[in-house]
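Regression test attached.
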Amino acid sequence: MSASLSRVEPGDLEKLKRHAYRIRRNALLMGEVQGQGYVGQALGVADVLAVAYFRHLKFRADDPEWEGRDRFLLSIGHYAIALYAALIEAGIVSEDEIENYGSDNSILPMSGMAAYTPGMEITGGSLGHGLGIGVGMALGLKRKSSDSFIYNLLSDGELNEGSTWEAAASASHWKLNNLIAIVDVNDQQADDKSSTVLAYEPIADKWTAFGWETWRVNGNDLEELVQAFDAAVSSESDKPRVIICDTLMGRGVPLLEARDKTHFIRVDENEWSLALAQLDDVYGIK
Amino acid sequence: MTAKKKLKTSAMIASIAAEGQPTTAAPFGHALVEAAASNDKIVGMSADLAKYTDLHIFGNEYPDRFYQMGMAEQLLMSAGAGMAREGFIPFVTTYSVFASRRAYDFIAMAIAEEKLNVKIVCALPGLTTGYGPSHQATEDVAIFRGMPNLTIIDPCDAIDIQQSVQAMVDYDGPVYMRLLRGKVPNVLDRFDDYRFEIGKAKRLIEGGDALIISSGLMTMRAVEAADELKEKGVAVTVVHCPTIKPLDEETILAEVRRHTGKPVFVAENHSVVGGLGESIASLLMRNDVQAQFQQIGLPDEFLDAGALPTLHDRYGISTQEVVKKVNSSLA
């Protein structure tokens, strides 16, 4: 951490906890429609999204393209289920869409695409695009003298892509202090553990060396997340900011936390109700 | 047999102008400066090749609207997409080889899939450098033709380039332009009625003995060949087709039908695989139009390094080679 910690009111944390719970619940309900998917990631990153959307992001639920909004770029298109869950919680996407998730003609396709979904800023899925697009948008916002932020959610696997580092170098070259990268480190990618596929540590040192102001937190600890996000948003520095979030896939649903291969999970039909029940248990909801 | 003097490898950005040919310096850069004077949305971005794509002219005139993105073509394309998302009209420049081979996925997914208003202007198309395959974009059109939403422009000369800049600004969507830079020949100014329009092919010369449909610098070759053939009593029709995609199907079908029984050539500064020639061949087949169809283009090979005049002769895209092909088809 490179800035002093902000004070977090207990009431704020309770509020964020409720949002995180509902994001997880929305993701499970969508997962159930398909019987499989990137549910583990959604559960893992739910706390990060709760803090981003419900503490910091400026948005208008009824006007997703409002010029004054902060832009949230999902480069990891397969995390769409996670962002949909947050967009539903934020009222940008209707809850009624849950039952159509991933089905023909749904506005919620399995991989996130800008043309399909309100609030989905870019078409992700081909990893390594988001941060570069973010650089261009951050430059554009500065041209317009806008005080909006660009957020870009990346994953540890996405750091394999060389283009991410082209963009990282450029962001610090251009002093893009309106750009906040969020790296979800869950140590899982398609073939194996991320650390096995292509060793990524020391992540924080790499970003720091590229000229970024860097935080690394437990991405499932709301208080740590709030402090890092608060510091990143309020920093006076001219550097771009990155918040590295270590998360646990399947977080909040013990039966999924225990899964070995969690990148793309299949859940038996009878397990969905169990998963939802476990989530309620974890949050003490009867 | 006397030994021919060996020509030296042409400079990276050798002019394709013949000695004494009238030229315009940096037509793209100057045209962009002019367009930008009345449109403050235009910005320029380059991947360390501003000087080699004539974008430095714009950068010098509008330093606060020019973005040096470093030698990073993937970033150039995605950042261009980001700029367009924020309402600007970025002209992004690099070499054709790097845009087509290296940055394809970024152009496809960050720009074309979302129909973003990015103008991709690239130097060294086809065989316009003697540096060998690393810099010769002999298959860029083949690569880009399969990309939905992308308009592909292959201008002939300085006049085409000047007019196409404003046309690109007026058109809302992604465009790939094959740029001729430096001292660019003036060719089309002798055709009073000519005006560049996206998506339109234009007849420049009316002949009748043979038809050449061409794009890019091969239109210059076709015009030169037609002039030379005319002196020998052979009248060649030349149709310039500077937009390769979307293709002006109506004009091309009409011209080929007008030349039934005559040789029809498609001439392009590109591989015979996947470019304008094959695009027109499939158009003719789909419409059941029979033609004595022949291609003038680069072979399906990685080409040699060397001097451009030598290479244009060797690979059949010099004016003399065009003349020879037309003559032998009529023999």
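Expected vs. actual: identical. The mean pLDDT of chain A is 95.
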